[in-house]
Each structure stands twice: as structure tokens, then as C-alpha cells.
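Hi support team,

I've been running sequence recovery on a batch of backbones for a student project. Most finish fine, but this one hangs at about 90% for roughly twenty minutes before it completes. I'm not sure whether the input is malformed or the queue is just slow. I've pasted the C-alpha cells below so you can try to reproduce it. Let me know if you need the job ID as well.

Thanks,
M.K.
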């Protein structure tokens, strides 16, 4: 058996269902599991029922008092900068990250890690030695609200759209400007919450996958929005054309509405929201087709932006099928 197979192997046991009284059924718990986690009479067991027929049992005290997740990286074998690994390990939910080497670490390497850690929420360098450096993440993923993080992403992106609209209207942009770094901090927190969680039901795992994919798309969307901001600022001729200006303002207002449907339909799945989203996309496409400009860079960025938003909306629409609805009939046994 390969190391990889051994690493992911699970103990599988069979238990016969027995009757208790006139209407109750019961099964015994595996002795090995009871001994390993010190389960005693009176302890609470959390039961998670999945739609595929799986029943998952988690002892409440394990969930509440779970040990911190630790990882140690041999940077001599890794052969990459430590700063390339930190975001991944942070997003995967590790609470303690240790980098070790068989030789002394260079001062610049340590300095880079210390500076990089300041860009992430809740992580700090707790130990530095000649041949190792340790980071601790104090961010409790179980206490981070996915809804609040998604709303923060929505607010950051919406403000960027508002800034573009302000340029088109000849108004001043907002004094407090969010940056791609601000968005990236929230993005990595969201990944840590969605990917690094320890105990999720099957439905939550699938929803978190959609969130992780869409948050990555929205990070790229923000990058394109920054470029559009610069292109529109430089093109005085475009800003002075009232007809084009009016159409672009209409487009960006609808894009802001589309952001709302993309994000909120993950949190609160709704056929109406998804339908509204696709209607907005059609309206945006129509409005863009009516813009007569020789600024091909602008049109190219708008096309890229719309493609990404349509992809994100398609992803969000998958959340509809994670819910129980009268129009869904599941038959997984056939």
C-alpha cells in the first residue's frame, strides 16, 4: 500500500441495528473511537445527516476542544520562498506554521516573512531562531461569519464601481480608497473560513466550494475594475461624450446590482435572484453593444469583466440545488 493510500485510509466497521423498546432503534459505538476520545456516558454526540445517506458522528467535546492544527515545512526540500506558502497554509486553516532549515536562515528571508505576515489578519511571527521561524494564527475560523465576509467583499467592490461612476459624472471620488490588498485580506479570511473549517456537512462543504471559487473570480474582477478606472480617467474624449457617458453609467449601475445578486444568491438561494442576475447580464450586453467608441481597451476590459461576472453567476446558481425545494426530487439510490 502506498504512503498516500495509507494517509487517507479510514477504519470501517459494521454494526447491526438493534431494537430498544417498541419504537426505538440503536447501534453501539466503536470501542476504539470511544477509547481514543474518552467518550463517557452522558457525553453529547453531534449527528450530521447528509443527503447521500451518510450519518456523521462528532463528539461535542472534540469539536469544542479540538487541538490546533499545526504544519511543519522543510524549506530546503520545498525550495520556494516561505511567503508563497503562507497564504496557502493560512487559507487551509492551520493555526501553527513552522518553517525549518538545515542551515541558518538569511536575514532577508526572515524579514520578508515578518513583513508578509502583517498583510494577513490574525497571524503573527511568534518565534525566530537561526534555523526556523514559527507563525501563529489566532483567527478562529469557527467564529468568522461567512455572510459578513461576503458582504465586506461586496462593499469593497461596490465602492470601486461607485468611484468609476463618480469619474463619469465628473464628481470627486470617495476619500477613503480601498485597495487590492484590502480585498485580498478579506478574500484570504474567507478562504480560511470556507476551506479551513474542520467540521462541515456535505451541503456546507459544497457551498463553501462555490464561495471559494467565486471569491477568486471577484478578486480578478476587482483587478479589472482598477484598470477600467485608469482607462476612463485618461480618456477625456470618452468622458465628454454625453451619450457614451450615460450608457456607461447605466452599465456600471447594473453591474453593482449584479454583484449583489451573485453574492446574496449564495447566502440566500433564490430562483428570483438568479433570474434577475441573468436579466441584468442581458441588459448590460445590450447597453455595451450600443456604445460607439474607438477605445478598444475599454471595450476589451468590459468584455472580460462581463465574462467573469457571468461565470460567477453560473456558479452561484448551483447553490439552488443544495436546498430542499418542491421542484427538486432526489433519487440517489437508482
Amino acid at each position: 500500500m502506498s504512503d498516500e493510500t495509507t494517509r487517507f485510509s479510514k477504519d470501517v466497521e459494521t454494526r447491526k441495528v438493534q431494537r430498544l423498546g417498541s419504537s426505538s432503534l440503536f447501534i453501539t459505538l466503536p470501542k476504539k473511537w470511544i477509547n481514543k476520545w474518552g467518550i463517557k456516558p452522558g457525553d453529547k454526540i453531534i449527528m450530521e445527516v447528509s443527503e447521500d445517506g451518510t450519518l456523521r458522528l462528532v463528539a461535542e467535546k472534540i469539536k469544542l476542544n479540538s487541538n490546533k492544527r499545526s504544519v511543519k515545512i522543510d524549506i530546503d526540500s520545498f525550495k520556494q520562498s516561505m511567503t508563497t506558502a503562507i497564504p496557502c497554509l493560512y487559507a487551509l486553516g492551520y493555526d501553527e506554521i513552522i518553517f525549518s532549515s538545515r542551515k541558518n536562515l538569511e536575514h532577508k528571508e526572515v524579514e520578508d516573512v515578518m513583513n508578509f505576515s502583517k498583510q494577513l489578519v490574525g497571524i503573527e511571527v511568534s518565534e525566530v531562531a537561526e534555523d526556523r521561524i514559527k507563525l501563529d494564527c489566532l483567527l478562529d475560523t469557527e467564529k468568522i461569519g461567512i455572510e459578513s465576509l461576503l458582504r465586506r467583499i461586496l462593499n469593497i467592490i461596490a465602492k470601486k464601481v461607485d468611484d468609476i461612476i463618480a469619474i463619469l459624472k465628473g464628481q470627486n471620488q470617495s476619500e477613503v480608497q480601498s485597495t487590492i490588498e484590502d480585498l485580498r485580506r478579506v478574500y484570504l479570511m474567507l478562504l480560511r473560513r470556507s476551506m479551513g473549517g474542520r467540521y462541515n456537512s456535505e451541503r456546507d462543504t459544497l457551498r463553501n466550494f462555490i464561495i471559494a471559487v467565486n471569491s477568486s473570480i471577484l478578486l480578478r474582477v476587482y483587478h479589472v475594475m482598477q484598470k477600467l478606472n485608469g482607462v476612463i480617467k485618461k480618456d477625456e474624449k470618452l468622458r465628454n461624450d454625453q451619450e457614451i457617458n450615460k450608457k456607461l453609467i447605466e452599465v456600471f449601475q447594473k453591474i453593482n446590482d449584479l454583484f449583489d445578486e451573485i453574492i446574496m444568491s449564495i447566502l440566500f438561494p433564490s430562483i428570483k435572484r438568479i433570474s434577475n442576475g441573468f436579466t441584468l447580464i442581458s441588459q448590460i450586453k445590450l447597453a455595451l453593444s450600443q456604445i460607439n467608441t474607438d477605445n478598444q481597451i475599454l471595450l476589451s476590459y468590459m468584455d472580460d469583466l462581463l465574462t467573469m461576472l457571468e461565470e460567477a453567476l453560473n456558479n452561484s446558481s448551483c447553490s439552488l440545488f443544495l436546498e430542499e425545494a418542491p421542484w427538486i426530487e432526489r433519487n440517489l439510490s437508482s
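--
Follow-up from support: It reproduced on our side and the slowdown came from queue contention, not your input. The longest strand covers residues 123-128. No action needed from you.
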